[in-house]
Amino acid sequence: MSLPADQLADWLQRHLGQKLVAYALGLTDPKMVGRYRTGAVKPRDMVLWRMQSLWQAAQLIHDRHGPDTTRSWLMGINGHLDGRAPAQVLRNATDIEQFGEVVLASRAFVNGEYA
Asked: How many domains does the chain have?
């Protein structure tokens, strides 16, 4: 299931903060997240894919561990991602496999599989 871009941006901004979301989405202006949230601007496909993957990964962790752990997980080094931070992987992702790696790493974290 995928939410519309405005709802994704709303959830992400409320739970992760505008700056972290903008970083993970590869945006140079954090205010763009708010513009997506209000529907004033529609994200390009690559940004939307990053947004969907960020939401999937973050929502899994948030539901189990809350917002602080979710933000820390997104910015921390991750053994499932070759020592890269999930937010960094999403920011630089250019294909579907990279988006999926972040979601899989979040599932591993929730299941207690630390690398």
From this structure: 1
The answer to whether 104 and 80 have CB atoms below 8 angstroms apart is yes
Q: Fill in the DSSP letter of residue 84.
A: B
The pLDDT tens digits of the residues spanning 57-80 come to 999 999 999 999 999 999 999 999
- Which SS3 state, helix, strand or coil, does residue 26 take? coil
> What b/e string do you get for 30-41 counting C-beta neighbours within 10 Å, with b at 16 or more?
bebbbbbbeeeb
* pTM: predicted TM-score of the whole model, two decimal places: 0.94
CB atoms within 10 A of CB 43: 21
Residue 40: the pLDDT is 94
| pLDDT tens sequence across 50-60 | 999 999 999 99
Distance CA 35, CA 71 (A): 22
Domain extent at residue 48: 5-110
Residue 92 in domain:
yes
